[in-house]
Amino acid sequence: GLQQLPGVGAYTSAAIAAIAFGEPAPAVDTNVQRVIARLHRLSRPSHAEVERLFLDLMPTQRPGDLVQAIMDLGATICRPRKPRCTECPLAELCSARASGEPERFPERRLRAARPHRHGIAYWIEREGKVWLVRRPAKGLLGGMPALPGGDWTEGFDGRPNAVGSIRHVFTHFSLDLHVVARAEPMGEGWWQPLDELAEAGLPTLYRNAVNLVLSTHDRLAA
Description:
222 residues, alpha+beta, 3-stranded mixed β-sheet, 7 helices, 18% strand
């Protein structure tokens, strides 16, 4: 049910379920994965394997406390490099520490080159208001407010009336979002007053696009 909310994926929903609702949900981020892998001396654990082992540790009472503790342990003690094993409350249980080379676990995976994409965001302004739409419920930034625009693709041939571009890096690709002035509204949306944009709930990508336009607003108006 939590994953039906805009912008909430598997990790966030598990963290909310455990911390806010007391559900035994294995919220696995990078820090948690590292702690579990080192406890069991796993070189290349799958996400499902880490979830299963994490669930085995989960208490029936206040599981959210364990989730937060393991997150913090991985962030501050069980670090990727130079782990502070002498300060770790799980040191006596840790198979990676017993090996004498805890940093070897889990193995670091080589990152594939991050693809680069281009997209267009249309700036449509009228009488002190800007036209906003809501992104499709499924997909990246699902259900969130945005400037209207098309798909994000690998090519971009330039557009007239371009205000400028911003670069944003997602987990799996980077994006140049080109902001283009347009006269008429497109898609289903609403007119958001410029002096109330902070209340619109725009994600970072589109907040940065808005800030780009507003920084040149006087010049454009002239």
